[in-house]
Amino acid sequence: MNVLVTGASGFIGRAVVSRLAEHGYRVVPLHRNAEGGEAGPAWNPETGQVSLEPAGPLDAVIHLAGENIAQRWTATAKARIRASRVDATRLLCEALARLSQPPQVLVCASATGYYGDRGDESLDERSAAGTGFLAEVCQAWEGAVAAARQRGIRVVHLRLGIVLARHGGALAKMLPAFRLGLSGRLGTGRQYWSWIALEDLLRVVELALAEDSLSGAVNAVSPEAATNARFTETLARALHRPAFLLLPAFGVKLLFGAMGREALLASARVQPARLLERGFTFRLRGLDAALNSALSGLNP
Ligand SMILES: NC(=O)c1ccc[n+]([C@@H]2O[C@H](COP(=O)([O-])OP(=O)(O)OC[C@H]3O[C@@H](n4cnc5c(N)ncnc54)[C@H](OP(=O)(O)O)[C@@H]3O)[C@@H](O)[C@H]2O)c1
């Protein structure tokens, strides 16, 4: 099976590329600003250039590209975050639709940010979208695949929670402070964080590639969303460190601005209803197990 992967140099992209290669897929990474031409496929979402023919016939595309959201959301950063998802997805899908032999499936990243800030409400794929910048970007991002869908490509939107692995994403950013014992809950700590172990996410990606009957939104989260307070305690315990501190909500907003409000203080208690309906079993379903696995081998 030939699989094109965008965002292949990123935290999730690197893991997806190596897992698929291990499992016998032929993986073609689509990096931005690649040379293209005879050498390989190329795209540059900023200039609107895309050339997919050199990749050869494709069976599947995994689309993970997007400007990292973990930065201060200035007006310019917000424009980059949005365009790198919405405009880039549209560009990619229009190019896929023009191929004489389009792929059968497009697995596209989205995020639990789709649901916005929803307190204790239990959310599944049928829940309405929320409000705020991230929710609005996620809706537009999912809507940007129209050309692919019209061409008959099966599209799966993986609404990703916080992906847990030591070497990247949110956990890698949290570890230095936690290892120094300089960590604690954020705001009230009652906000739900929905998460998934990287290992389980890789299995969800393979399921999305293989299951012809799966399309539309799929929440890629463990069934055991945790409050920020529980997440903090569990991570501190896994590292044998204290976590007595508290960063009040105003401090989070002062330090991180709107990103802190929407990504750190917002509450999304998301259920992977569609995965569970299909009998998907999470190997790392509980937070203790997921964090211990992510941190195994880390020097104290
Ligand atoms: N990690 C998580 O916990 C998490 C949670 C929810 C959703 N997601 C979503 O899942 C996707 C992959 O996440 P990740 O953690 O692997 O992200 P990442 O490490 O930031 O990697 C994203 C990749 O996208 C490409 N990229 C960066 N800036 C771009 C821009 N301005 N325009 C177009 N492409 C750009 C880069 O790949 P190239 O240089 O190879 O093009 C980069 O390596 C992202 O869309 C992210 O929003 C991740």
Q: What molecules are bound to this protein?
A: NADP nicotinamide-adenine-dinucleotide phosphate
Chain-averaged pLDDT? 95
Strand order of the largest sheet: 2-1-5-6-8-13
β-strand amount: 15-25%
* Global structural class: alpha/beta
Topology order in helix (H) and strand (E) letters:
EHEEEEHHEEHHEEHEEEHEEHEHEHH
- How many separate helices? 11
What fraction, in percent, of the residue positions are helical? 25-40%
Give the radius of gyration.
19 Å
Number of strands: 16
Low-pLDDT windows of residues: none
Major β-sheet profile: 6 strands, parallel
- Shape designation: globular
Alpha-carbon distance between the termini?
A: 42 Å
Please tag this protein with its features.
single chain, 300 residues, alpha/beta, 6-stranded parallel beta sheet, two-stranded antiparallel ribbon, 11 helices, binds NADP nicotinamide-adenine-dinucleotide phosphate
Plain-language structure description:
The structure is a single chain. This protein is of the alpha/beta class and 300 residues long. It is built from eleven helices and 16 strands. The chain has a six-stranded parallel sheet with strand order 2-1-5-6-8-13, sandwiched between helices. Helix 8 crosses helix 11. The protein starts with a strand and ends in a 5-residue tail after the last helix. The site of NADP nicotinamide-adenine-dinucleotide phosphate (NAP) has 26 residues, from helix 1, strand 6, strand 9 and helix 6.
